[in-house]
Structures are given as C-alpha cells and as structure tokens.
Amino acid sequence: MNRTVVTLVGKDHVGIIAAVCNFFAENNINILDIKQTTVQEYINMILIVDTTGFDKGFDKLAEGLDQVGKSVGCIIKAQHEEIFDMMHRI
Question: What angle is formed at CA 46 by the lines to CA 41 and CA 49, rounded to 5 degrees?
Fold first, then answer.
C-alpha cells in the first residue's frame, strides 16, 4: 500500500470536498481516513490516501492536487507518509 498524506487549507465554501473526492475517484485513489475542521469561514482538512492504483507518479499527483486547489481557492499539498512522519517526530 502506498500511503500519502494530503492537506488542504482555505476559505470554506460549497464544493471543496466534492472536487477533492472527484479527483481521487477519477484517478483510482482510495481515501483511507479523513479529518476536517472548520473554524469560522476557514477549512482545514487532512486525508490519508492509498495511491497504489495511481500509476502516474507522485509529481503528477502533486500537480493534479495543486490544480484542484486552484480551482476551489485552497492550498492542497501531498507528502509521502514516511516523509510526513519524519518531519513531525519530536
């Protein structure tokens, strides 16, 4: 299993989650876990996804999520789970 951590931050509005989930569905990426927090008008979301079925490579995944983010007015970033874990160790 190839696990990737995806983070999203931006101003909340209708359609953000739909756009992200549609991108994942269209690219054979499975959402394993999702956590969303909304504070006043801002959304912060973190997803753990399985990219085993995505054969275009990590760079294309990051580019695709960046484009989705631009289309919904949010910042969306992807990191390999191993790198994310190492960056957040104490």
Answer: 145
- HEC assignment per residue over 12-58: CCCCHHHHHHHHHHHCCCEEEEEEEEEECCEEEEEEEEECCCCCCCH
Check if the beta carbon of residue 75 is closer than 8 Å to that of residue 10. Answer: yes
pLDDT digits (tens, 9 = 90+) for 18-40: 999 999 999 999 999 999 999 99
Between helix 58-72 and helix 16-26 the angle, nearest 10°, is 150
Q: Which fold has domain 3-87?
A: Alpha-Beta Plaits (3.30.70)
Name the pTM for this structure.
Answer: 0.89
**Domain limits, the chain:** 3-87
